[in-house]
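Note to self: the last two entries modelled the partners one at a time, which told us nothing about the interface. This time every component goes in together.
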Amino acid sequence: MLIRIWREFEAMFLEVNNLSVDLGQFHLIDVNLGLEKEDYMVIIGPTGSGKSVLLETIAGFYRPQSGRIFLEGKDITHLTPEKRGISIIYQDYVLFPHMNVFENIAYGLKKRIEDKEVIESSVVDAAKRLKIDHLLDRNPETLSGGEKQRTAIARSLIVEPNLLLMDEPFSALDVNTHTYLTDLLKKAVSDYQTTCIHVSHNFNDVWSLAEQVAVMRDGEILQQGVVADVFSKPRHDFVADFVGVRNIFQGEVVGGSKGITDVEIDKNLILHSSDTYNTDFKEVIVVIRPENIIFSNQPFVSSIRNQLKGIVTEVVLIGPTVWVEVDVHGTSFKGIITPSSLDMLGIKKGNEIYLSFKSVNVKLIDND
Amino acid sequence: MRKLDHTTIFFALMGSFLFFFVLIPIVNLMVSANPGIILNNIQDPSVMSALFLSIYAALAATIIALLFGVPLAYLLARNDFWGKGFVESVIDVPLVIPHTVSGIILLLVFNPGGIFGQPLSQIGLTFSDAIPGIIVAMLFASSSFVVNSSREGFESVDPRMEKVARTLGSGSLKTFFIITLPLSLRNVVVGSIMCWARAISEFGAIVILAYYPTTAPVLIYRRFVDFGLQESIPVAVLLISVCLVLFLIVRLLISGWKTYDKD
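The predicted structure of the combined assembly is written out below.
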């Protein structure tokens, strides 16, 4: 506990404090971010939310109207990009077309290291890590998308940056290449002990790479934290909606006792949440993650507070999971189960079914 | 082979008009000249010095245009600023005004009492009827080719490529010389050739600002006025041959040149 408190006072590895940037079309408003060394953060948000502007501001290409950026305790807000020790990787690789793969990877080393043999062995080493050591003589135009991006990753990691920024690095690649590259990248950044900020619109990148996640909209960071926290406890209805929580309802606090809050989301439909709530603010957003809904053919006696009866309106197989949509007195709930549970329960469109979920899984968010 | 449709045939017929309109007179000029007289002209010092003067003054004008035009082109390609449209228009003005007007404009400021001519005469530079006058007239008429073509080249280089180079430790000037300039060199070279060729051809502004020493276009004009068409033809053939050879050499050089246009 003491150690945790002490850490609160210590400066973080990367600190972005109250950063505001106005580029006319894009802007950042009062952005705060904090990362520890070797953290991997994925920033997600819709197109135009300012994710790229944030990366390029951290890299030093835009002058902020206000706010500060600290890297390893040093104020880098007004340093030129070449002095920050921050590498950047873009979606479309932007390799230098007049240099071959070797020269591309070696580019950043030439300024730091005189000895040509040292440069060569570092380049070969980086290329091996990214499995492109057989391509060193090739020109960028002859490479596939995945090979280009591996070259770009090697080029940026070889200078051992303090911070690696990635702007949708995989979104131009096909699914298989994406998976392969994710594994390579994960290994490479841990080998180089790199701290990363990765902008993406793909939730797979969050699951497979991120320790920290931040959700952005309209130039603002709405929520930042450990992945599990952000996804299970969205503090903002946009975050809940965006991170894929499908059961979001407008509700009104109608009462409660002993740590349980009663929320009416429709006439005759009251849910119980263990989120304590100040009844002065009656309008709330109610969030239930689909995987927290339990399906059964019969009502059962248990400590579960929320048990509802409804009619199955939709059964959709998506990948390895089944989405089940149930109508409860005109309100639609969405749950997620495995195909074997689907068979076992014999769930079909039009069937009657019981839904159960714990009050702890009913999240309440301020509706303001 | 592609099937020829009516539209293609019709457009080819219409389009060939301009092609032959330019080609036939040039070929006609070349064949109408008597080779013996052309040989005489090659041995004529006044003809050769006029040709030489045109070529090297134009080269000087092109180098000056590069020195100042490339930075301007890069600024225009990478930055949006208040009054940018005005700057671009000013650079293009010499293309749309009569060249004799350019000559008058230049004479007003470069005569020994003019706002440029007066201070420059202090360091011994005179422009009226002097080589610097010829260079200035050429520069005025042709520099926009360098600016516009280089600018297009710089615009075709992804700014993020420069950003990557910056994050890898290159300063902005080094990035320009290692990344941006090599990738847009073709445009810069093409612009320079256009500038050079246009400068060699300049007549109107030179006639007003620096009638002497005689450049090739002025010599052709004088031969025509003093002695008639037949006397002006050999010099014209020589000038056009020099220009075409230069043009051809450079076209050959850059045709083998790799391009890195954004795809």
